[in-house]
Amino acid sequence: MKYVWVTLSAIVFSVTLLHAQKPDKPTSAETYHELQKLNFLGTALYVAAHPDDENTSLISYMSNHEKARTVYLSMTRGDGGQNLIGSELRELLGVLRTEELLAARHMDGGEQRFTRANDFGFSKHPNETLKIWDKEKVLADVVWTIRKIKPDVIVNRFDHRTPGSTHGHHTSSAVLSVEAFDIANNPEVYAEQLEYTTPWQPKRIFYNTSWWQYGSQEAFEKVDKSGMVSLDVGTYYPELGLSNNEIAAMARSQHLCQGFGRLTDRGSSMEYIELLKGDMPKNNDVFDGINTTWSRVKGGAAVGEILYAVEKNFNFRNPEKHLTELVKAYQLLQKVEDEHWRTLKSEELQTLILNCAGLYLEASSAEASATPGSMAKVNFEAINRSANAITLKSISLSGISENSTPDQVLADNIKSNFDISFTVPATTNYTSPYWLNDPGTLGTYTVNDQMLIGKPETPSAFTAIFALEINGVAINIEKPVIYRYSKPDKGEVYEPFAILPEATSKIDEKVLIFASADTKDVQVKIRAGKNDVSGNVVLNHPEGWMVTPSSIPFSIAQKGEEISVSFKVSPPQSGSEGKISPVITIGNKTYDKELVEINYDHIPKQSILLPSEAKVVRMNIQKSGEHIAYIMGAGDNVPESLEQIGYQVHLIDPNDIQIGSLDKYDAVVVGIRAYNVVDALKFKQPILFDYVEKGGTMIVQYNTAGRWARQFENIAPYDLTLSNDRVTDENAKVNILAKNNSLVNFPNAITEKDFDGWVQERGLYFPSEWSADFTPVLEMGDEGESQTQGSLLVAPYGEGHYIYTGLSFFRELPVGVSGAYKLFANMLSVGKDEVKKESNVKG
Ligand SMILES: [Zn+2]
């Protein structure tokens, strides 16, 4: 049991290094900054709901000014957000945003933790959030984090007393934090956790308030602040050459997929934290009354005596002069009984020893990935850039029997390299985010291993152990095995060393719509995880569907190479939906995963294994018209979806729109938030309305209300006021108001059943007021709220039709929701039935 504990704590340490992408190479001033942090024994926990909620100014202040261990607990990984830099959405976006948080913490000096809660989308009220999240589970994780981290102070980003005033996830994060503050020290609560940790009572809990809570800066100035601690977070750190707010902006700018790139800022700036529970600290010192010196720990005073003296007399020119004292302190620290502080401070002290000695240790794999059962080779590099007596006694890898015992003195500035070749054990876990390994619910991930809960990443598969003797004292240093290579246009690149399956498969199109009974060719891509892979692949399919051939043999010579095979898929005659999933057989093993890689400059490359599958939908859908012009806004996949049901979609550059240029199209569709992001559109509205007047159909999807109001007044040819009205419950009941309207009759009859199976939400930013020219077609509302009629509005204009809809077609079409397709086909066909009627009359 003891051995297991040592290994796990070492993994925490290596994970910190893993996301750093490139290894840190601190200057002696930065090393001094780390020494100051080593000599502060206090902990702060910051709590909010999403990646990017966190106040990086305060986290950086706690970490770099107070010198406290500072942890940000984000309830979720932000799966429900938008992505401004790539196509990752849902769980893949959660992986990207996790890495962005780690990159932010690497900047501001904090650490990162999570609960199992999933960011399932916008929620209006914490009651709804806590029901969907499974409050007991998420509260357990907050308690677990408090017991593991043992914070002295907790700071909530959001106010637990104002439900309904912000995202339900936000308020819930504060509600859970306050509840956990009261129960984390009670051994009867979540007693099962105490097999791995101990109860803990934080001393204080605060709410990180701000002027916007009070409406204006002026109003906030008048507020009685006797219950608040005020902190100047604009402080300057000469040893880092940076102001706290500069660091905060750099950290915040890591949230690139959310568009948080920021200018850096300097100068005095105040933050206020309001005391919720615990005693009011004096002198605006959040750690007032808490012993944050080495004497806090039994046996720590002797360690402190050495380390405070090193801090006082720090030799910036030759930090290696302190090695003897640091190693002596390390030896004393190992005798400290308090496991929490011993583990934590040993890791910090190890790093300090390496940095003071200019001791560089690295373990890099010869290849980017390996498969279980295959051979791998790891190179160990060790270099001592000091005059201290350092011996590399042995090197090894966690869980691997092969090792090497060089027992070599590391002479000043002479590099040593050693290799270990080994067979990757057949039982080695694949490299993939642990929280995605098992299917979760709408509200939470499934994580069965208690020790993984809270961790930002999956621990690296292999840890290298450098057994050193420094000035006669044995110190084992652990490093994750990495892969590094050079790219001509990028320089040196570091990646995690990945363990991957022998073969993975992929169907590019995640949803295949069969609008007729015609057979479709479906390409399955197969990627080899090692050299010389051969086997066969079958395509599992739902009942009533047909797939030929039943099996396809394949062989791939090169690791990493991808080939493509083709199956013919035939749908049944009537409506049906299900999944097709490729299964590869190699020898007596089967493989059913897709490998997704996420690769951006600001985060380390991520390998994610997901079930390999695609949704197939046979829908009986009628349509009218052929050619659609699409004006892209903030980005959506609606054009691809419309092509799946047989439309020809032409993407139009708004700058190219001229009088008459749209006449050849059956309809013009404007993508989501186009009026918010495409400036040119405001000049093109008269041309678009002219197109409608002459008989065209114009469909505008949702735009956000705030920015629109400032920039445009002519979103529609008639009065139309956008609002913040939204219906977030995807199952909210829908009433058809305009039962005779063409939009619910032609060419597809729409019934309430067509609103079954929608995902995430009904829609957002519905208009709240509109001219009498519009007909509201539908009515819906969230539980406990009034019904809104603005989700789908249609108005005749001249010879044509204008439609405004806040319904979330951009979410429903890409996942193959039949009813949403039928309704969209009807919008595109509006007016075409009148033409038919007329011609019937004439005929
Ligand atoms: Zn948020």
Account of the protein in words:
With 843 residues, this protein is α+β, with helices and mostly antiparallel strands. 25% of the residues lie in helices and 28% in strands. The strands form 12 sheets. Strands 3-2-1-4-5-9-6 form a 7-stranded mixed beta sheet, with helices on both faces. α2 runs antiparallel to α12 and α3 packs across α9. The longest helix has 19 residues. The structure holds zinc ion. The site of zinc ion (ZN) has 5 residues, from loops.
Task: Kindly list the characteristics that best describe this protein.
843 residues, alpha+beta, seven-stranded mixed sheet, disordered N terminus, binds zinc ion
Give a short synopsis of this structure:
The chain contains 19 helices and 44 strands.
Q: Helix- and strand-based class?
A: alpha+beta
Strand content: 25-35%
Largest sheet: 7 strands, mixed
Mean of all residue-level pLDDT scores: 93
Low-confidence stretches: 1-20, 707-711, 838-843
- Distance from first to last alpha carbon: 88 Å
Q: State the shape.
A: globular
Output the radius of gyration.
30 Å
Spatial strand sequence of the major β-sheet: 3-2-1-4-5-9-6
Query: Which molecules other than protein and nucleic acid are bound?
Result: zinc ion
Helix content: 10-25%
Beta strand count: 44
The tally of helices reads 19
